[in-house]
Amino acid sequence: MARIQWVGFDGDDTLWKSEDYYRQAEADFEAILAAYIDLADPRTHGHLLEVERRNLKIFGYGVKGMTLSMLETAIQLTDERISARDLHRVIEIGRTTLQHPVDLLPGIREAVAQIASDHEIVLITKGDLFHQEAKIAQSGLADLFHRIEVVSEKDEGTYARVLRELDVAPGAFAMVGNSLRSDIEPVLGLGGWGIHMPYHVTWALEAEHGVAHDAPRLRVVESAGQLAAALAAIEATPSPDDDEACATALRHNGGMKRALPVLVLLACLAITAPAGAQDAAAYTPATGDPAVDRHLADINEYAARYPAAFADEMSRYYAVPRAYVEAMQQQPDWTAGDIFMACALAQIVGQPCRAVVREWSRDHEGGWEAVAGRLQAEPGSPQYRRLRSALEATYRRWDRPVPEGEK
């Protein structure tokens, strides 16, 4: 599976609104030009964009570069007839845009905080240094980030430098952003992961990209509330190298999947069994407690019939974000019994569910009994007795009879 160590976030139109203010600036600019030229001429609308494109390598991104390009465009389109007063009005458009409020997108603070709770996160934003620093400070999000990068361009070279400095491999890095051109394409090119969160408006230059909609390392979300689920889905995705690892491990383990490390197990299940092929008899969680084993197998059956009720239970009573549970349920190689075991153990030992999932992924040898032992919750311990109590409470809430053999 992919193990994401660092998650990057874009700033403008990912954390806070930005393009809306640029659109308003362009509308105000056209209102000034309307006194001199025919705005219905199609050449008028494309002229500013071409000037901005030409000036990017000189003025860079941001409001100041836009304002200088507006001044140049106004002088050219009016054949130098524009008055000094109106040129001053253009400058004021830039000044006003630089002072726009920093409005966070809905749910973004909670989403960033949730991901920061168990990942290193870095803000990678481009544009004018002073303006970006001001927006970061006003956003109130700065303390959530382990590192902040304000860059002049977002290309593969820039991301490669940042990843080297973070000491993280591209495959262990995911970038969240609204721009396929700047936030996603360069990271995918390096072998990283991209989570695209489109904004309702996009600057024309940022719309120029070569990302395929079905790129294997691309995930798309509609809102900040879906980011954690997208990240969980990435981390539950088998690695492209797992096929070979699976074949090797199965040969060395005599075909016994239960003893395989989970990184290999997930790939093996995807190769050797169709979705839903694991029935209750084949499911062997190896908790060291036959009663718990039977409960977990029965939970698989319950969740298959009532997936929403299972997600509700985990979210409400085991303090797991519902989006995370739903993302794990969508992975054909994860059973509801294993999700329950990971999250119930996590609550008992005071860790996030994701941390126990990672512990299972790190070393699956010995099944859940071994994992619980490493978490100081081995069978027979007070912590393990709390696990059995949690199972009983869940079954009471479901009004479900205990599995056969328990009566």
Descriptive account of the structure:
- The chain has a six-stranded parallel sheet with strand order 3-2-1-4-5-6, with helices on both faces.
- By secondary structure, the chain is an alpha/beta fold.
- Helix 8 links the parallel strand 4 and strand 5 (193-196).
- 54% of the residues lie in helices and 7% in strands.
- It has helices at 19-33, 42-59, 63-77, 84-98, 108-116, 129-139, 156-166, 180-190, 227-235, 242-252, 262-272, 290-305, 307-317, 322-329, 336-349, 353-362, 367-374, 382-398; strands at 6-9, 120-126, 147-151, 173-177, 193-196, 218-220.
- Helix 15 crosses helix 18.
- The longest helix has 18 residues, at 42-59.
- The protein starts with 5 loop residues before the first strand and ends in a 9-residue tail after the last helix.
Beta-strand residue fraction: 5-15%
**Multimeric state:** single chain
Fraction of residues in helix: 40-55%
Number of beta-strand segments: 6
Computed over alpha carbons, the radius of gyration is 27 Å
Distance between the termini: 39 Å
Quick structural overview:
The protein is an alpha/beta fold. The chain has helices at 19-33, 42-59, 63-77, 84-98, 108-116, 129-139, 156-166, 180-190, 227-235, 242-252, 262-272, 290-305, 307-317, 322-329, 336-349, 353-362, 367-374, 382-398, and strands at residues 6-9, 120-126, 147-151, 173-177, 193-196, 218-220.
